[in-house]
Amino acid sequence: MFGNEDISSIELTKKRIALVINYQFDTPIEFIQTTLNVSYKESLIAQYHYMQDFNGVVVDDVLSFEKYSVLTTDD
Fold this sequence. Notes:
Layout: E1 10-24, E2 27-40, E3 43-52, E4 58-65
Antiparallel strand pairs: 1-2, 2-3, 3-4
């Protein structure tokens, strides 16, 4: 995907850190969600979402590539 490119040119920047508390059936579901922007050659290519509970245990994570990023367009 990156060929001979230096992957150190991939930059992560903080977009959002959020405290989330959802109530379902009177039971709170609490976690911290961190969202990072993933940039390559000064273009946003993806976002990384990381969710953990208050004890630091990972709840879920996902890497979502942007539809019109430099990696998903035809050259």
